[in-house]
Amino acid sequence: MLDGVLDEALVGTLSTVVDGWPWSVPTLFARIGDDVIVHGSTGAGLLRHAAAGARVTLTAYVLDAIVVSDTLFNHSANYRAVVVRGVLKPVSDSAAALAALTDRIVPGRTLETPPITAKELAATLTLRLPIEDGQWTAKARSGGAGVDSDRWTGVVPVRTAYGDPITDTGDEIPDSVRRLVSGG
């Protein structure tokens, strides 16, 4: 289940503690083998703190359905969630890690763009969170409300769907974006 959630979820929450206070930031991520890749600006406070050796967690989840019951108490959700904890490490090849992250979000996009520049690499902190035995947990719920009632109960599936692209610049929508929105 761990790999499945990490491969399906697009956004996770990276968390740590700074001066006794929890600090959580939503982030795009990608699983590459036994590592979770995260990135951000070299000026990003949480990433700088984590890069210095602070312990972190990355939480990701997929919401599969809303469970509707006949009582408020029994309403729920079907989901799959994981938490990976550890210490962020430098990646051996930042350009390759950023390319893998980009292609995870928009498959094939790196074939349509120029390579990342040295200036862009210098402004980006790219780190990996090793997935190690005993340092992750997974939790899931599936099924209905589990009650016997004459009133309606059931499950409402939740789906993530891409909408029509909204052009910012340029005339032609790239093939990678067309494939993404078409589901192919």
From TrEMBL:
Transmembrane segments: none annotated. Pfam families: Pyridox_ox_2. It comes from the Bacteria. This is Pyridoxamine 5'-phosphate oxidase family protein. The lineage of its organism: Bacteria, Bacillati, Actinomycetota, Actinomycetes, Mycobacteriales.
